[in-house]
Amino acid sequence: LRKGVSVAGGRLVVDERIFEEDPVNLLAVLHDAQRASVQLSSGSRDAIRRNVERLTAEVAASAQAIDVFMSILKSGDGVYTTLAEMNGLGVLGRLIPEFGRLFCMVQHDYYHVYTVDEHSLIGIRELERVRDGAYEKDSPLLTQVMRECDRPELLFLSMMFHDLGKGYGGDHDERGAVMVGEIAGRLRLHIDDRESLEFLVR
Question: Are 146 and 131 in contact (CB under 8 A)?
């Protein structure tokens, strides 16, 4: 596909040296897999885990890393699958530490059958399913609205971040909205997009 990245046996295979050359590749190879509609090889997963600490706060805040992350969210399909892979490999938590704090967090309430991180990502999977027509028979209007949404990445981000404030005590919606404002700043989102995210989380 590009230097150090190939598809073999239906799996994405990476040359580990690309992570040393440019740590943004820790994100980019996941986008490569998303675009090629393939899973990572087990060796590639191991290579990412060994190198994930190269994704420092400075790298995560770079324009290149943010561009790759937003491209993953804007892709026509595979958003949930890619984010879930990123989460399991520790990449998502390095990119968005506030979300990384939710990794395997258990909430003992009616709404959280899954851990908080997986609950939030499954919400993204369901939004994709709405767009793909899984609920068209019972919810035709919702399906139409999702398909006509011109900024689905904002919906995906709001779903991903809707429980960020969990575990601190008090009103998690309000705390999460404040946290989202800070994250949106790091993601270099337009002020209107920041306000939309805060509104949706709140």
Answer: yes
- State how far the Cα of 196 lies from the Cα of 138, in Å rounded to an integer: 28
Q: Are 47 and 53 in contact (CB under 8 A)?
A: no
Q: In this structure, what are the phi and psi dihedrals at residue 14, rounded to the nearest 5 degrees?
A: -120, 150
* Among 119, 100, 99, 98, CA closest to 108: 119
How far is residue 125 CA from its own chain's centroid?
11
pLDDT digit string (tens) for 16-40? 999 999 999 999 999 999 999 999 9
Place of tokens 């938590």: 93
Contacts for 119 with CB less than 8 Å, ≥ 6 apart? 107, 111, 112, 113, 163
> DSSP string of 163-175?
TTTTTSSS-HHHH
Give the H or E element holding residue 47. helix 42-51
Q: Tell me, rounded to whole angstroms, the distance of Cα 70 from its chain centroid.
A: 9
State how far the alpha carbon of 15 is from the alpha carbons of 4, 40, 46, 90, in Å.
5, 12, 12, 19
Reported as a single tens digit per residue, the pLDDT across 41-97 is: 999 999 999 999 999 999 999 999 999 999 999 998 999 999 999 999 999 999 988
Place of tokens 């993953």: 72
Which residue in the block uniquely carries the two structure tokens 């709404």?
111
What length is written for the chain?
202
Bridge-based pairing of strands 11-14 and 39-40 is: parallel
